[in-house]
Amino acid sequence: MRRHTPRTAPDRRTARRLPVLLTGAMIAALLAPAFPSAAAPATPVAAAAVTDHCGDGCSDILPPGADGTATLAEILLDQTVNTVPAHSDDQLGPYANLASGYPELTESTIGDFFNDASFGVPADQVASTKKPAGRTDVTIVRDKATGVPHITGTTRYGTEFGAGYAAGEDRLWLMDVFRHVGRGELTSFAGGAPGNQALEQEFWRAAPYTEAELQAQIDRVAAENGERGRQALADAQAYIDGINAYITASDKGRYFPGEYVLTGHKDPILNLGKIQPFKLTDLVALASVVGALFGSGGGGEVDNALSLLAAQSRYGVQEGTRVWESFRERDDPEAAVTVHGARFPYAGRPADPQGTALPDPGSVTREPLVHDRTGSAATAKADATAEAAAAAAVGSARRGMSNALVVSGEHTASGRPVAVFGPQTGYFAPQLLMLQEIQGPGISARGASFAGLSMYVQLGRGQDYAWSATTSAQDIVDTYAVELCQDDYHYLFHGQCVAMEKVEHTNSWKPTVADSTAAGSYRMRAWLTRYGPVEYRATVGGKKVAYTSLRTSYRHEVDSIVGFQMLNDPGHVTGPETFQQAAQHINFTFNWFYADSSRTAYYNSGDNPVRAAGVDPDFPAWADARYEWRDWNPENNRAAYTPPAQHPQSLDQDYYISWNNKLAHGYTVASWGDGSVHRGDLLDDRVRALVQNGDVTRASLTRAMAQAGLADLRAEQVLPKLLKVLRSGPVDDPAVTDAIAKLSAWNSAGSLRTETSRGSKRYAHAEAIRILDAWWPLLVKAEFGPGLGEGLYTALENNLPVDEPPGASHGPTGGHAGSAFQYGWWSYVDKDVRAVLGEKVEGGLARSYCGAGDLTECRGVLARTLKDAAGRTAAQVYPGDEHCAAGDQWCADAVIHRALGGITHAPISWQNRPTYQQVVEFASHR
């Protein structure tokens, strides 16, 4: 078991254990400045209380722990004697234990897996009290149980100053990392590891801003949003001042994050070097990363065009289009939806498409971002990293983002709404999110915020209400075909030949203690047009074009600050209607959920552009005034947006679920896969059953969430139909018979990927799990490959990956990220096999594929691929990686906190659940 050094909260960062060895004397010499306790004024006092209407009904958890900052000495103690700061990993155990403990969960044992999320800190639970920078208008109290900061201010400036100071204490290094990610400068700052290259390339490609453009966003907040905008700007400046005050104090006291030493920015002996102060434009850089990762649905139009062309080449234009549309599932009638009984038409297929600019076959090339590679940037691994980053940046899939379960009081035991919800943001050490409570003039909230943007709570609770969000992925990104003129760097804009703008900068790195990647460098270059950055080159009807990407939040990432300010303001949010009004001010694409003591609500946010009549949002459109967004102003990238009434929304529905599934019938999102089988079904089936039985409690809703988070979607939803086909005739092969028996037993036991016992690191039904993991890609290829042909099959796979098991990689969030089963061909297999069985299928595929529609032939396809899968060894199915040995099934699935700092954590058993999670039931209302 790990030992812990007593200390209030802080941060981490690196991708491997640092190769540093110290003598006992060296460690002792470094310990004196290691802990900032001397910087904290003495006598602990209780934080000022506000009216808390939650009673004992609010709980939450965020692993691995509140403390996300480690000094050099603490990092070295972790590396040498496995001792870490007190609150750096104390939430890992309770979080991990829910996977095995949820079946016996009761109201009285929720506290074994979640923390009390009440406002304030009882006097006997105060661990430390601080007046940051000697200010008299703000106090930061940290509790003994978790080390979370509780910030109480008597002035607005002081409150936000305290929030910034606490953010510096808990996440300074992480904040510094991500302001460099947003500026495309991570490798020069933290080292040239392939993961760092991928991060900066992916995010800078989407937002290659100059300093002037970052500042322009800041200026617009105050200019365009009245008093709230001016207050937001003042809050942000106070927050920045607090961060910088902590930088000054930690530098002077020499308890700054040790990663600055290990990456060569600070000298540990003479304290030379400087931690650059934060500025307002850093917040925009940070917001651009968060927005791109979690809140910018859309893209993928070029991939859509390529798969449509492949379908038309295979079947002819009319039949190919029909086949393509059946796989696209724009508005599948069998899809699970968040809003019941209402249609919200948006981004559907136009009856008479206009302005579509499909590329000439074979003409598409991706615009290169990286140039002039040297050293370690010129390797095959670096090439693969750049290709993966580019594909992730321009695709429509937005992976792994959050779930929500909300039940109205009509169906609960208490008669009050119950909610279990939170964001699924991957797993990092330190975590991207941080917990805090903020109490001050016009602010009263507790919850999670993205590090570096924590001037407000972004997901959490107020005095008598709680809220959370999931990624919605509706289409706010369009691709335009701009016709080139003069050369490859001029284009036609409203009849004029104008030059593209070139934005570029060079990054270079050399080995450090933290990152041993050999020296290297490259230049990143983006070409900008009025229609956004260039993503591809092609020809359309023989004309040379550049395909550009334009999103409504481009150059507007900071606009949402006003909506978050409203969510934290008890004077604004007084009920579900005012909550929805606040969410309307958030331009990122999110599903927002609300619960208080009697009401529930849902609202879908985002600036949805009003497209020209006939424009199909699934494909590139000509860059022509006739096909632009209505009322679009290229000078500020403003346009006409669909009014709030046209966004999916609801009040007091019997229950809500969301796991990035379809929002409402009629409402098409950019990503593929909203069909008859979606991971949202894992929640919907369970919550519907609870509601039908009645008397729902916090414990029963949490159990439903936890069980869904351990379920294998393929096994629960699709496997029974596959087994039905296999059993439709005699099975003579003993290997197939044995595999069927194992799969059937697992399915009967619940289709869960769970350990035999807590800590065993071995799955129950391990053989069945291995067989299905091996079988799924084999059966999909054998089922659909012959009918579709290699070209169309590959093109559709680019639109929607065949499988997403727990061990799959998730771009910026990496592998071992928990989230699984969001994107895959589960609906296609489900609909196709049901059709072969003769069962009713609504919104079926245009053609039959399994055995060309013949049941006997289909059974043969399944049996042959199942036999092949059953013969694959564990080492073949789970080949291993830098964390896991080949054949280690449990480890292949395991959640691993990706190190972004010097402290690392052991893997935990797989769960497919939110990273930060609330369990709430309010007792009363103002």
Descriptors:
32 strands; alpha+beta; globular; 926 residues
Topology:
Layout: E1 3-5, H1 24-31, E2 58-61, H2 72-81, E3 83-85, H3 92-101, E4 115-116, E5 126-130, E6 138-143, E7 149-153, H4 156-182, H5 186-190, H6 194-206, H7 211-224, H8 226-253, H9 259-262, H10 280-294, H11 301-315, H12 317-328, E8 343-346, E9 365-366, E10 370-375, H13 380-394, E11 403-407, E12 418-422, E13 428-429, E14 433-440, E15 443-450, E16 459-461, E17 466-471, E18 477-485, E19 487-493, E20 496-499, E21 501-509, E22 520-529, E23 532-540, E24 543-551, H14 561-568, H15 576-583, E25 590-595, E26 600-604, E27 621-622, E28 649-651, E29 655-658, E30 665-667, H16 680-693, H17 698-708, H18 713-726, H19 734-748, H20 766-799, H21 826-836, H22 855-870, H23 874-877, H24 889-893, E31 898-899, E32 917-920
Parallel strand pairs: 1-3, 7-14, 8-30, 13-31, 18-27
Antiparallel strand pairs: 2-4, 2-32, 5-6, 6-7, 9-23, 10-22, 11-12, 11-29, 12-32, 14-15, 15-16, 16-17, 17-25, 18-19, 18-24, 19-20, 21-22, 22-23, 23-24, 25-26, 26-28
Helix pairs in contact: 4-8, 4-10, 6-13, 7-8, 7-10, 11-12, 11-20, 14-15, 16-17, 18-19, 18-21, 19-20, 20-22
